[in-house]
Amino acid sequence: MGTVNVSREYTLKEKIYVIALFQGMILTLKRFIDGFFFRKHYTIMYPEQKRNYSQNFRGMHFISVDENKTENCTACYLCQTVCPAECITIVAEERNPATNSYGVRKEKRPLSFDIEALKCCFCGFCEEACPMDAIKLSRNYELSVTSRQEAVYDLKHLKREVKGRG
Ligand code: SF4
Ligand code: SF4
């Protein structure tokens, strides 16, 4: 694999890093004065207060369902194929022909559908590629977990991931 040399010459101001150090201290002092004397705050009291993110914000995925709570996904693998982070893993199975009232368009379903959220870069390619509008990105950004395993979301979780559906 080739390497890219990104080294560059530092300017005199960058070499005398003390200037940047003082600039940082002045900014900190300014923020302190703003907050202490003028009650002007630059941070919010999360989670009591939340910021308004853009309508285009891409958060955690969910799998849309129909009126019978059946996933719209037909396990076509397009999202898994297009995903640049390779964080979608699908195992397909045939829908039960006796209960499949959807016809040939939905002859398959995901037996399992896992997304490793820690690998995902939230590019939205999976949503764009999906021919069934089955996988969508919500506006939910509260994804803190205590282990890597908890960040692997399965079909059951993705079907009930409702917060901030957009
Ligand atoms: S948002 Fe991008 S990286 Fe994340 S699962 Fe979809 S295609 Fe993969
Ligand atoms: S979510 Fe959409 S693109 Fe992905 S397997 Fe299901 S139907 Fe295909």
Describe this structure in words.
There is one protein chain. It contains 5 helices and 5 strands. With 166 residues, it is of the alpha+beta class. It has 2 domains: 10-43; 61-97 and 106-160, Alpha-Beta Plaits. A 3-stranded antiparallel beta sheet has the order 2-3-5. The chain has a two-stranded antiparallel ribbon with strand order 1-4. The radius of gyration is 24 Å and the shape is elongated. The model has no long low-confidence stretch (mean pLDDT 89). One iron/sulfur cluster (SF4) is lined by residues 82-85, 87-88, 115, 120-126.
Q: Please indicate the count of domains.
A: 2
Summarize the amount of helix as a percent range.
10-25%
Second-tier CATH architecture of the largest domain? 2-Layer Sandwich
Rg, Cα atoms, Å: 24 Å
Order of helices and strands: HHEHEEHEEH
**Tally of contiguous helical segments:** 5
Largest sheet: 3 strands, antiparallel
Bound molecules: iron/sulfur cluster
Strand content: 5-15%
What would the average pLDDT be, to the nearest integer? 89
Question: Would you give the CATH topology of the largest domain?
Answer: Alpha-Beta Plaits
Shape: elongated
**Can you tell me the CATH class of the largest domain?**
Alpha Beta
Task: State the low-pLDDT regions, or none.
Answer: none
Number of strands: 5
Order of strands across the biggest sheet?
Answer: 2-3-5
User: What is the CA-CA span between the terminal residues?
Assistant: 41 Å
Broad structural category: alpha+beta
